[in-house]
Amino acid sequence: MLAPPGAGKGTQAEALASNYGVPHLATGDLLRKEVASGTPLGEEASAYMDRGVLVPDALVLQLVLDRITKPGLLDGFVLDGFPRSIRQARLAHEWGVQHRRTFHAVIHLEVPRDVLVTRLLRRGREEGRSDDTEETIRRRLLVYDEETSPLLDFYKERGILIEIDGSATVEEVTEEIERRLDELDLS
Ligand code: AMP
C-alpha cells in the first residue's frame, strides 16, 4: 500500500488483509507500539517520528522481517507504510529474491493535497496522534514527495502499480481495490 499520509492506506490495508485472510503489517503501527512499550527500538524511533521524518532503515526492516518470518515465513501479507524509499524498496527486493517472494501488487491511493491536510488535522484532533500537527504534517508530506513518491515509477516500471482514486468513500475505494486485484492472477 503506497500512499501519502492521510490517504486512507491504514483503513484500506486493514480491509484488504481481512478480505484475503492475511496479516496487516503497518510499519507506523508497529513503531508506535514499540514507542508505547518503551523498548530501545521505540526510544530510538520516536524522535524521528515526532519530527515527521523517516526512521532509519535498519530499525524498520528489523520490525517488518520479524513479523514476516516468525514463527514461520508468512504465505501472504498486506504491507502498509513499507517500503517508503527507493533504498527500502531495493532492500525488500533483495530479501524477496533470497526467499523467492515477490510483491503481487502495489496499490497507490491518489488523494488531492488539500483533502489530505484536512483529514490529517481532523485525525490529530480526534485521535491525538502526536505527529498530526500542522508543522509535522507539512514535513511528512514533503518526505513523501521527496523519498516515497519515486517508488511510483519504480513499481510502474515493474508493471505492478495499481492506481486508485482514494478520494471516494471508504467502501467505494475498498470495492475498487478488490475489483482491480480480482483482475490479477494472485496464484
Ligand atoms: P504512518 O503511520 O505510516 O504514517 O507512519 C508514521 C511514522 O512512522 C512516519 O512518519 C515515519 O517516521 C515512521 N515510519 C513508518 N513507516 C516507515 C518506514 N517504512 N520507514 C521509515 N520510517 C517509517
Write a structural description:
By secondary structure, the protein is mainly alpha-helical. It contains 9 helices and 4 strands, in the order αβαααβαβαααβα. The chain has a two-stranded parallel ribbon. Strands 3-4 form a two-stranded parallel ribbon. α1 crosses α9 (170-182) and α2 packs across α3 (40-51). The chain is globular, with a radius of gyration of 16 Å. 28% of the residues are buried. Bound molecules: adenosine monophosphate. Adenosine monophosphate is lined by residues 5, 27-28, 31, 48-49, 52, 54-55, 60, 81-82, 84, 88, 131, 140.
Features:
two-stranded parallel sheet; mainly alpha; two-stranded parallel ribbon; 9 helices; binds adenosine monophosphate
Topology:
Blueprint: H1 9-20, E1 24-26, H2 27-37, H3 40-51, H4 57-69, E2 78-80, H5 86-99, E3 106-110, H6 113-127, H7 134-148, H8 150-157, E4 161-165, H9 170-182
Parallel strand pairs: 1-2, 3-4
Helix pairs in contact: 1-9, 2-3
This protein binds adenosine monophosphate.
